[in-house]
UniProtKB/TrEMBL annotation, chains A, B:
Membrane-spanning parts: none
Molecular functions (GO terms): DNA-binding transcription factor activity
UniProt name for this protein: FeS assembly SUF system regulator
Cellular component aspect of the GO annotation: cytosol
PANTHER family: TRANSCRIPTIONAL REGULATOR, WINGED HELIX-TURN-HELIX TRANSCRIPTIONAL REGULATOR, RRF2 FAMILY
Amino acid sequence: MLRLSRLTDYAVVVLARMGEEATALQSAPGLAHRTGLPEPTVAKVLKTLAQAGVVEGLRGARGGYRLSKPLPEIKLTEVIVAFDGPIALTACVDGGSGLCESEHLCPVRGRWDPVNTAIRDALEKISVAELAGHALSPAEADFRLAAE
Amino acid sequence: MLRLSRLTDYAVVVLARMGEEATALQSAPGLAHRTGLPEPTVAKVLKTLAQAGVVEGLRGARGGYRLSKPLPEIKLTEVIVAFDGPIALTACVDGGSGLCESEHLCPVRGRWDPVNTAIRDALEKISVAELAGHALSPAEADFRLAAE
DNA sequence: GGAAATGGGACTGGTTTGGTCCTATTTAAG
DNA sequence: CTTAAATAGGACCAAACCAGTCCCATTTCC
Ligand code: FES
Ligand code: FES
């Protein structure tokens, strides 16, 4: 289905929620509660995002996570790469030789690169903020909490 | 890895090989031999391509497959859709509601659409011919055969 | 010192996918 | 008319992959 990891989807949801209070320090359990997603999953997502440098994690009691840059500056590619790895559409990786067994017979050898860059370019232009529907209103957020 | 099905890769290889003799009727075993790919796999790929209308299959002895249109007119999306299904990057399909359990809590709901169209547009512009490295020279083809 | 949080990774069940094989159907050749 | 060669279609199985959970170490505030 050419689908990306479900965790990527979750990540966007979590980031969107964080974007509503961009400066605040928010804990994983807290965010789980506010997004309605299961807590262990949110924790995992945040860990990965922290590794990628998209969010910044502060340890200790009263610790939590914080966006390391404003939502509109977070490119979608950053998130995707964090969870799905480098954006390369095929098994025959970009310049890499030696990995494909039928390489010496293959007319396509390496030719996927233009495709990959085309997709990277397309995704590069999209920020997470654009996916977030930038900020549900606070009222709407309250409604969601109530719905739980 | 955001990778597409390996069969898609094979398909492009096979199509590229067919493009070298675009009008000729070529059998699955023959193409398998010429591409160096295992025969059952090539057969499967061709069946799928036939269903998608990319190639045309003729039955019976002396049957075979033929491109249903010239290689440069075959868009990459056609091939991808044939093997990987519709190009939609997330589990939450385009307009479809009701499939996602946390939809009522989800700030992203449906917002992936722009991403999907961005990717579709990018892929739409690429033809299989562009990936094929359009035609190894006949000499090169002979070399390959000899190399087997 | 204890509680609360992140950091990092191991483990596992479920799903998906690739690859193979089998059978029916069609058509040309002998 | 029989046989052979090919496509059409689908069933099946093993392997790879992924999500989800859990566990333990580390850090920091109270
Ligand atoms: S299939 Fe691997 S190089 Fe072409
Ligand atoms: S995660 Fe499904 S609608 Fe957002």
